[in-house]
Design a protein that fits this description.
Order of helices and strands of chain A: HHEHHHEHEHEEEEHEHEEEEHHEEHEEEH
Number of strands of chain B: 12
Oligomer: heterodimer
Shape of chain B: globular
Order of helices and strands of chain B: HHHHHEHEHEHEHEHEHEEEHEHHEEHHH
Distance between the termini of chain B: 19 Å
Number of domains of chain A: 2
Structural class of chain A: alpha/beta
Shape of chain A: globular
Radius of gyration of chain B: 25 Å
CATH class of the largest domain in chain A: Alpha Beta
Radius of gyration of chain A: 26 Å
Strand order of the largest sheet of chain B: 1-7-6-5-4-2-3
Distance between the termini of chain A: 62 Å
Structural class of chain B: alpha/beta
Largest interface: A-B, 208 and 195 residues
Largest sheet of chain B: 7 strands, mixed
Number of helices of chain B: 17
CATH architecture of the domain at 82-338 in chain B: 3-Layer(aba) Sandwich
Helix content of chain A: 25-40%
CATH class of the domain at 82-338 in chain B: Alpha Beta
CATH architecture of the largest domain in chain A: 3-Layer(aba) Sandwich
Number of helices of chain A: 13
Chain lengths: 456, 478
């Protein structure tokens, strides 16, 4: 016995075949060349629900999860608290088993919640319009660059070296086949300081856009006024990638003068889920709307004057424009956008500010404590939000291995970011880290350093 | 009744979620004011109100769990509840993509095994789980094809051939990869016009993008000749896997001549569509294209451990952050393991049987433009009804009054007033009969009382909405 979710019995099938006027299903398949028809499938034996549960539980239990381990890892995916109401509401199968809302009369649930998501994202980012979501933060950034290329008809994209390296990799892939040149500033280390080359000198009148990240990949914050002015002076667009949780307190992309704001929305009520599915945010100035990729939901009325919501401005999209579309994207991350909408409405303005403040305070408390341990050094990249760079007395991978034994997940090994940060890790704290966890981290780091002969 | 917006429910001072007070001292250095935002306007709503609001909204939605959802090319099959439970376990949902590999061996093993399973099912054994959706898989696969030609120094291949029945994502993807697109017409039997193809494919052709079965629900009668023709000129076969459900246990895309294709896990492998995402669009490819796969992917080391590998220097790089829609991968893996080879073999046949049964029941009342056995879906034309002044859109809306989700309409573009019906294997004969009865009743209404069809839907929260006004004066937020 096993599950195949096929309700029809052999008797049903016989009656159906008879109605069709054939003897067997194979009579319907004569068009498939016999040489390739009914291949062997070497797959495992089927399982009942109980067997499946027990096999997968064994796999799940091999993973160290945030309910049982203390997490100090961020770098683009964050361990935030997800209120119970979100998880419960996302189990409404009227939401999760629906397709794209092609029939608005029976999809107002998806459409109105998407409209509410768009409204709250506009408010959070300080932007004029937003779509109903992209695949993730990285592809949102790459699509924003494509928008800039289309809007300015220029073929040069300038990006800060302190943008998430994965986002830069995705950007390169998206630009290469389009023949767009990507120029990046470099990030270097001088003693205890992390320095980024100024972007202004490499911005010219061939630049379609300038892309920065705030807080940047290393957690740092900077005054973006001069960059915004310079890119606008040369006629390009200003694109800011940000963590929406940080926008509970930080100056918004809109206030910095961004033309397009992008970001990874996972932290807004969605789980880390080993890196996906995630939620790409893409918001922009109203004048760029026709270059915008993805789905847009708008308000309108029916013949009786009742308000309703529809997918709109579809003339930008692939199913209408085909090879002339703004992008090939044909979906959104609607269920995650719904999670984010519920999150923002539960938090409200007070909660959003408070989450950001808790992240900020806990990270600064953690930084002060770990920096005081012999052998560890805090690198200075100016003001920061909830992530900071810590130089370790032994390789970060070894530190993390030791932390794992103590039921802690340490920071991101910055060797991957560039050789100048070899031996450093990017540490993160969120509202989920209690003082006890942070104190535990500090003493564990102390032990680890001491057990290996300590200070370099 | 329509539901008010959150902004309309909002009252100053209401709170939906209380966070704990900070247990650490406030940071000594506050941020400079120039880095801080000014106002933040969001709804202020209590938890009870938030919950009721979204439950009310859910009641305005029609999901697969509500009823029959025969949306052509979307494979709206039942989404097993066991997968939903499993994917939410903290061991899968509360893990971070950058954790040490030794702390996520279960997750990596699941990904590795899913790579193997998809390789066996498709007959294309080099697999990337990274792409986030079907169209994203297309982009990945086409970038791989581009990299393949370039690695051979073959730079004159600038165009991609695409049948006129193809999804819009195909030409849009080709453009994103820097190719020009050339449409290939279909013949009178719904096949790719083989003569036209032979004329069009040449030394400048990078690939043919082909959906099989095609969007008419038909298996091409010249399938193997198409592959031979394309390969004969050094071009590659890209498979759009949107309709893979029909091929489960029936044929392997690799045996049909496809070199690289994407697989929509949210269609064939029963993961829910989420109201428009999240999906997952893994790419499978022939060994000759393995070097170009996105990185990282999961390998099994000699000592039996699972590890992320970024090895290949010819890789097209990364197409999204991290490793893919992991939560979706978990559900698809659970589905494949539940059915096993035995169960999967039944899927294709039962999907095909259901579609042919429904087609047989409807062919008297509606025009069937390609009257031959279909695969997992079929296309009807509302041309007879149009002659009586009723459009396919009206018929679709009338189906809502009968309690059904309408089929895909006005696609494929090559069929006038198209209705594309895909029942899937998870529907019972009774459910197919009820839908057929409704469409037959509507066909009679078109003849006897067309106004009732044109006025539909009547029992929904809103009637037909003014989409022209929505596009002309976009109101995209409150």
């Amino acid at each position: 016995m096993y599950m195949d979710f096929i309700p029809n019995t052999d008797a049903d099938r016989q009656q159906m075949l008879q109605a069709i006027g054939v003897q067997t299903v194979d009579d319907l398949l004569k068009v498939v060349p016999e040489s390739v028809r009914h291949p062997s499938l070497k797959l495992p034996e089927p399982l009942t629900e109980m067997e499946l549960m027990s096999e997968l539980r064994a796999m799940a239990e091999q993973n160290a999860d945030a309910q049982h381990f203390a997490f100090f890892l961020g770098a683009g995916a964050y361990n935030h608290y997800v209120p119970a109401a979100i998880s419960q509401l996302l189990l409404r199968s009227e939401f999760y088993t629906a397709y794209t809302p092609y029939q608005p009369e029976i999809s107002q649930g998806t459409l109105q919640s998407a409209f509410e998501f768009q409204s709250m994202i506009c408010s959070l980012t300080g932007m004029e319009v937003t779509n109903s979501s992209m695949y993730d933060g990285a592809t949102a950034l790459a699509e924003a660059a494509l928008m800039a290329v289309a809007a300015t008809r220029r073929n040069r994209v300038v990006i800060s070296g302190s943008v998430n390296p994965e986002y830069r990799a995705v950007l390169n892939g998206y630009m290469q086949s389009r023949g767009v040149k990507v120029v990046a500033s470099s990030v270097t280390r001088e003693g205890d300081r992390i320095m980024e080359d100024a972007l202004e000198p490499i911005l010219d009148d061939q630049s379609a856009c300038c892309i920065v990240q705030q807080p940047n990949f290393l957690g740092g914050l900077s005054d973006l006024t001069a960059i915004a002015d310079r890119i606008h002076e040369v006629g390009g667009l200003f694109i800011i990638s940000s963590d929406p949780i940080s926008l509970g307190m930080l100056k918004t992309p809109g206030e910095w003068g961004a033309d397009i704001a992008v970001g990874e929305g996972q932290g807004l009520g969605n789980s880390m889920s080993f890196g996906g599915p995630y939620l790409g945010i893409l918001a922009c100035k109203e004048r760029l709307i026709r270059q915008m990729p993805g789905r847009l939901v708008g308000a309108t009325k029916d013949a009786k004057g009742r308000r309703g919501f529809v997918l709109t401005m579809q003339a930008r999209e692939q199913h209408i424009r085909r090879e002339k579309a703004t992008s090939n994207i044909c979906t959104s991350e609607q269920l995650l956008a719904l999670g984010a909408a519920i999150y923002m409405s539960l938090m409200g303005p007070v909660g959003m500010r408070k989450v950001a403040q808790l992240c900020y305070d806990k990270a600064h408390y953690a930084a002060a404590n770990v920096a005081a341990i012999a052998g560890y050094r805090l690198l200075d990249s100016g003001p920061y939000f909830n992530e900071f760079v810590l130089e370790c007395p032994l390789p970060p991978a070894e530190v993390n291995r030791e932390l794992l034994k103590r039921k802690m997940i340490g920071g991101y090994d910055l060797a991957a970011f560039g050789p100048s940060l070899n031996g450093c890790m990017l540490m993160c704290a969120t509202e989920n880290n209690s003082r006890g966890q942070i104190d535990g981290l500090a003493s564990a780091l102390g032990e680890i350093a001491a057990s290996r002969g300590g200070v370099k | 009744m329509t539901e008010p917006l959150l902004s309309e429910i909002s009252r100053p001072g209401r709170v939906g979620h209380h966070l704990p007070e900070s247990d650490v001292p406030t940071a000594k250095q506050p941020l400079p004011a120039c880095l801080l935002r000014e106002k933040l306007e969001l709804p202020e709503v209590s938890e009870n109100e938030v919950v009721r609001h979204f439950v009310h909204l859910s009641n305005l939605n029609y999901g697969l769990d509500t009823g029959f959802y025969p949306l052509g090319s979307c494979t709206m099959k039942y989404n097993p509840k066991v997968s939903e439970e499993i994917a939410r376990w903290p061991g899968f949902s509360a893990i971070h993509p950058y954790q040490p590999e030794e702390s996520v061996q279960g997750a990596l093993r699941l990904m590795f095994e899913l790579q193997q399973l998809l390789g066996e099912i498709s007959g294309l054994r080099s697999v990337s789980l990274q792409p986030a959706a079907g169209a994203h898989g297309e982009l990945t696969g086409m970038l791989m094809i581009r990299a393949y030609h370039e690695s051979r120094g073959d730079r004159k291949r600038t165009k991609v051939l695409i049948p006129d029945s193809a999804h819009g994502t195909n030409p849009a993807t080709a453009t994103m990869c820097g190719y020009s697109t050339v449409p290939v017409r279909s013949d009178a039997r719904g096949n790719v016009d083989l003569e036209a193809l032979r004329t069009l494919v040449d030394g400048e052709t990078a690939a043919l993008m082909l959906t099989m079965p095609n969007t008419l629900g038909l298996f091409d009668e010249n399938m193997l000749s198409i592959s031979e023709t394309v390969h004969g000129r050094g071009a590659l076969m890209y498979g759009d896997g949107a309709n893979l459900n029909a091929l489960l246990g029936v044929a392997k895309p690799g045996d049909l001549g496809f070199d690289v294709m994407h697989i929509n896990l949210h269609k064939t492998f029963a993961t829910p569509h989420g109201g428009g995402g999240p999906g997952a669009g893994p790419v499978v490819a022939r060994e000759t294209l393995a070097a170009f796969l996105p990185v990282p992917y999961v390998v099994k080391t000699a000592d039996g451990r699972y590890s992320l590998d970024c090895g290949e220097r010819d890789s097209i790089g990364q197409v999204r952050s991290f490793y893919g829609s992991f939560g979706v991968l978990v559900r698809a893996y659970a589905y494949i393991r539940a059915l096993g080879g035995q169960g999967l073999r039944k899927v294709g046949e039962n999907a095909i049987l259901n579609a042919n049964y429904l087609r047989t029941r409807l062919q008297g009342a509606y025009e069937v433009p390609y009257p031959r056995p279909c695969m997992h879906e079929f296309v009807l034309s509302g041309s007879r009804q149009k002659a009586l002044g009723v459009r396919t859109l009206d018929i679709a809306k009338r189906l809502i009054d009968y309690g059904f989700h309408p089929p895909t309409v006005y696609f494929p573009l090559i069929v006038e007033e198209a209705m594309m019906v895909e029942p899937t294997e998870t529907e019972s004969r009774e459910s197919l009969d009820a839908f057929a009865d409704a469409l037959l009743a509507i066909a009679r209404e078109v003849e006897e009382n067309p106004e009732v069809v044109k006025a539909a839907p009547t029992n929904t929260v809103v009637g037909r909405l003014d989409e022209t006004a929505a596009a002309r004066q976009p109101q995209l937020h409150w």
